[in-house]
Indole-3-glycerol phosphate synthase (Sporosarcina quadrami), 263 residues
Amino acid sequence: MTILDDILCVKRLEVKQLLMEEHIVSRETISSRPSLFHLLRASSKLEVIAEMKRASPSKGMIASETDPVEQAKIYEKAGVACISVLTDETFFKGSMTDLEAVTNVVKTPVLCKDFIIHEVQIDRAKRAGASVILLIVAALEDDQLLRLHRYAASIGLEVLVEVHDVNELERALVIDARIIGVNNRDLRTFTVDLAKTEEVAKRFPFHEDRVFISESGIRDSVDAKRVAATGAAAVLVGETLMRSMNAEAAITSLQIVKAGATS
Ligand SMILES: O=P(O)(O)OC[C@@H](O)[C@@H](O)c1c[nH]c2ccccc12
C-alpha cells in the first residue's frame, strides 16, 4: 500500500458520507473570479500559485496554527495568480472551513486542493467558492478522469490536471486538459525532484493552447529559474511560503521575468 492508496481509501469513505448528506447539485456556471488559464497565458513572468498547507504526510506539521485568512491576504497582496487551499483533513490537516475562509476574503482564483474521485466533492468545492479544482491522473481511471473533468467544466470550474510523468501527461492530453501541472513529488515515495518538470516539459505541447505548471519542492529563485527555463507558466508552492517569516518577499523572489518576455 502506498500513501496514495491510503488516501484514496479515506476518500471513498468521505464520498459515501457526503452522498448520505443533502446533496446540492451546482447549476451556477459563472464564476466571479478571473480565469486562471487566461491569467497564466497572458503573463510575462513566472506566476506563483500559493498554497495554504498546514501539514503533509511527508513533512508532518508545517504550520498548523496559521490563520488562513491572514495567510491568504498576504498571498493576494503579493500578487499571486491563484491561492490553493488544502481541504483534506486526515492527511493534510486542512478543511472546507479553511477554503471558505479564504474564498470569502480574496478575489483571486482559488484552487480546492483535495483528492477528488467523485462529482459530490466537486459540487462541494463549488459551493465553498472555489474556481479551480485539482484532478490527479494517478488517482483516477481514464473514464473517471474524463467524466470529472467534463463535470467541473459544466459547472464553470477550471481544472488543474496533475501528472507525474510522460505517460500521465499523455492521459491528460487525451482528455484535452488545458492546465496541466507536473508534481515534482512522487505521491508514492515522497521523493522530490525538479528534474520531473524538465522530463515532462520535453514532451509538453507548448505550441497548443495549454499551460504548464511545476508543483512542489520549489524553495527559492534558483529553483524558480530552473523551472521557468522549461517553459513553465507558474509554480505551485506550499511549504516554503508557510514556513517563511516574510511570505510576500518570498513570493516576489519567485516571480521572475520569463526568458524571451518583452516586459
Ligand atoms: O509544499 P510544496 O513542496 O511546495 O508543494 C506544494 C504542492 O505542490 C503540494 O502540496 C501538492 C501537489 N500536488 C498535491 C496533491 C495533493 C496534495 C498536495 C499536493
